[in-house]
Amino acid sequence: MRVIEAAPDRQLWAQTRHGDPEAFAALYERHVDAVLNHCFRRTGSWQVAEDLTSSVFLETWRRRHVLEVDAGSSMLPWLLGTANNVIRHQMRSLLRHRRALSRLPHGVTGPDPSDEAVGRIDAEARMRRVLGAMKDLTMVEQEVIALCVWAGLGYADAAVAMGVPIGTVRSRLARARERLRVLAPDAPPGMGSHD
Q1: Mutual orientation of helices 118-134 and 166-183 as an angle, nearest 10°?
Q2: 102, 184 in Cβ contact below 8 A?
Q3: CA angle 105, 108, 110 (to 5 degrees)
Q4: Domain count of the chain?
């Protein structure tokens, strides 16, 4: 293992802020799977999740001169918080796009051919069912489930990602879990990892 890959996030980020692409690449390799899984669990589509993950890391690189990481901190909470912002922006754009399309004359559409593996298709279908159950949760309840249950962040890291106090994360998570239990008692909260 190269020395740069073993360095803590704060050191890699300090090097990244000075324009070191190898340090940024090490951060990317360290956290890309977690960000990709988070985006998939929020959208139910691997293709969209891959695009969103690219946007998260592009935004991180773009903001490298203004973001500071505390000593001992991981970049993951900040990256997942950025992912939430990118997802919200994408959802608003998609909603505007769908509204515009709904005003166009409707044509006949055929099935969308796919070259993706059966496993990915099945995972997407299962994730869409879970997201369908979660649609009745508020956006902050969806975010806290995605961060704490699916991404496995602790309360402190989720608080950083969401920009709220730890107590708020705890209460939102308890409320979200209870509502999800009522709305979809058979929904597996850990489903949808990308191995």
Answers
A1: 100
A2: no
A3: 140
A4: 1
Q: What CATH number is associated with residue 31?
A: 1.20.140
In this structure, is residue 153 part of a structural domain?
A: yes
| The two structure tokens encoding residue 60 | 């991180």
Query: Residue 71: what residue type?
Result: A
Give the tokens for residue 65: 């001169």
Query: What is d(CA 73, CA 9) in angstroms, rounded to the nearest whole number?
Result: 7
193 in any annotated domain: no
The Cα–Cα gap between 150 and 148 comes to: 6
Strands (E) in the chain, as ranges, are none
Cα separations (Å) of 72 from 11, 75, 81, 101, 184?
9, 10, 18, 48, 38
Q: Is residue 44 part of a domain?
A: yes
Tokens encoding 135:
């649609």
Domain enclosing residue 26, as ranges: 3-101+118-183
Nearest CA-CA partner of 44 in 111, 138, 118, 120 = 120
Residue range 94-152, pLDDT digits in tens: 778 777 777 777 655 544 544 456 677 777 777 777 778 778 888 888 899 889 988 99
Could you tell me if residue 111 is inside a domain? no
pTM over 0.70: no
